[in-house]
Amino acid sequence: MSYTQGSPNATIPGAHREQTLARADAPFPFSHSENLPAAAAAAAAAAAADYDVSAVHPYFAALGDVLSGELVAAGDADYDRSRLAWNLSIDQRPAAVVFAAGAADVVAVLRFAAANGLRVAPQGGGHNAGPLGDLERTILLRTIRMNQVSFDRSTATVRAEAGALWGDVNAVLAGTGYAALAGSSPDVGVVGYTLSGGYSWLSRSLGLAVSSVTAIEVVTGDGVLRRADATENAELFWALRGGGGNHGIVIALEFKAYPMPDVYAGAMLFPLARAAEVLAGYERWTRDLDERVTSCVRLLRLPPLPELPDFLRGQSFVAVDGAVAADSETAQKLLSPLEILDPVVNLFAPMAPTELGTIHMDPPTPTPAAGGGVMIDDLPVEALERILELAGPEAQTSLLAVDIRHLGGAIGRPAVGGGAVDRFTGRFLAFGVGIAPTPEAHAQVSADVQRLVAALRPWASARQYANFVEDSAPASTFHTPDVLPRLLAVQEQFDPAGLIKANHPLS
Ligand SMILES: Cc1cc2nc3c(=O)[nH]c(=O)nc-3n(C[C@H](O)[C@H](O)[C@H](O)COP(=O)(O)OP(=O)(O)OC[C@H]3O[C@@H](n4cnc5c(N)ncnc54)[C@H](O)[C@@H]3O)c2cc1C
């Protein structure tokens, strides 16, 4: 049986064969090149300092006419609303925004960009737009209208289109007895999250989300719609799984769902004043912890938001939240070393795995924020002291949350047939975030985030998780010396003109 949600008009008949879609041949000004690689010359000309991108603007209407989706150019009435990322404090100003309706639109946009010296930046949930930088010569390709999700129980496979959010996937899987490797926020985009790793509340037992991907439909930078899996375009499949969307614009992902009864999940809250004791107890607990437990310890300063319950509104806590993929009795035993620390509230309870998006209290809608993180190999006493100095009970900080997510288990092991990123070697993933409604607040929160990251640098892992880095960073931050040249070789083959602009580029 199949379960379906979202608009049906974005399915891709024939996506299993390599093809350049006919619609993409529509004539555009300057569309003299028959194939996209030949457009490298146009891209090179556009890179010249005196290239005037405004000369292209009159032709956006022609592109808009051939799209099934919508095009909003700089200067249009809807431009300011259309260019918003999820993080409302990011001021992205692309040459135009396209809300694509399907693969044919994506091909048309790539062809137009190639012929006119522009680049194309795909964006789904828009949660990590910060590192994209200057978009003046870029078309921002929003995929949020391509949000169909289906589940094939006979193969336990989910197919999610490029703009689907984890909440869309959870809605389709609810009541099926299956779960996928969703992140803590239902609002996060499935594709952006998965292409760089994907840390789920089920990851310590089931691995990173990227290693559960079984096939990818993608329009590569050369304008061709392809399917990539273990046997077809296998090298591209390897690169896409970890390469962060540098090789093409994903149209849909297929990935495994797992049979999963209720999990035992929730949070324990302790007074922030007891942060030193709870952090130390948490670190002790995580040594040799059963892989069925995936958790996070957090220093939280909650804002006085009306939608929060009374006991949380405006309060500060140390929280341990997470999920145990086991029956209640086993889970309670596994959680007992935390229970002994005597929380003021224990909200752990049996829960459907598709409800796990509620436990971390991530903001449910677009928010102005600044954040950043660092993967660390250890959490010794000195590191805990640094964290307490910066975010403990005595600290003056703009950070709403400092999270330390526990890694290890299946996250740390190579995945069979895995891609360019198939594991994280660190022991913890730290992340600091604060609300930033004004430029001044953004500067303050960013400075506090940088202080946190710098303080933990002595324990930083050799490679970092791209999705937890919200500033520009060299590709060597994320990829090992053996992986990076291989990713670049695949990019040279499938996006020779360098049309795709990813938030974390390979060079
Ligand atoms: C509140 C919050 C909670 C989070 N929780 C978790 C969590 O639990 N676990 C975790 O691992 N991460 C988590 N993250 C981090 C999250 O995984 C990253 O921010 C991720 O990049 C979000 O994907 P997106 O599609 O929403 O973002 P986007 O900004 O849309 O995408 C990020 C990048 O992915 C690429 N991309 C997106 N769509 C496509 C496409 N169709 N084709 C090719 N490339 C594409 C692009 O390079 C794009 O710049 C969280 C982030 C936030 C803000």
UniProtKB/TrEMBL annotation:
PROSITE patterns in UniProt: FAD_PCMH, OX2_COVAL_FAD
Pfam families membership: FAD_binding_4
Residue ranges occupied by any FAD-binding PCMH-type domain in the UniProt entry: 90-260
Keywords: FAD, Flavoprotein, Oxidoreductase
Record InterPro entries: FAD-bd_PCMH, FAD-bd_PCMH-like_sf, FAD-bd_PCMH_sub1, FAD-bd_PCMH_sub2, FAD-linked_Oxidoreductase, Oxid_FAD_bind_N, Oxy_OxRdtase_FAD_BS
Annotated coiled-coil segments of the chain: none
Cofactor: FAD
Family the entry assigns: Belongs to the oxygen-dependent FAD-linked oxidoreductase family.
Name of the protein: FAD-binding oxidoreductase
Source organism per UniProt: Jatrophihabitans telluris
